[in-house]
């Protein structure tokens, strides 16, 4: 069952939802940047400078959160995102390495 912020438990992270989230190139870019960053890196959602409206950024991060790829935490008037690296590696070993190895688009 997802927690109060919409993060699914590790055992509830489903491959279909993860692949659907990663199908979008902008969401894949966010995951790729986080996967290439040092373990535990947390960034504001706006720091990714996605070329879309604020509402669309919110939509993309909600999709990533609901799929179980990122954990979001409110920090004042912004949201921070951190890759759920250990959880994804536990459920789908090697998936993040594949995403991180993809060339930037």
UniProtKB/TrEMBL annotation:
One of the record's GO molecular function terms: DNA-binding transcription factor activity
Protein species of origin: Streptomyces mobaraensis
HTH arsR-type domain boundaries: 7-103
Alphabetical list of SMART domains matching this protein: HTH_ARSR
Protein name: Helix-turn-helix transcriptional regulator
SUPFAM superfamilies named in the record: Winged helix' DNA-binding domain
Organism ancestry: Bacteria, Bacillati, Actinomycetota, Actinomycetes, Kitasatosporales
Pfam families in UniProt: HTH_20
Keywords tagged on the record: DNA-binding, Transcription, Transcription regulation
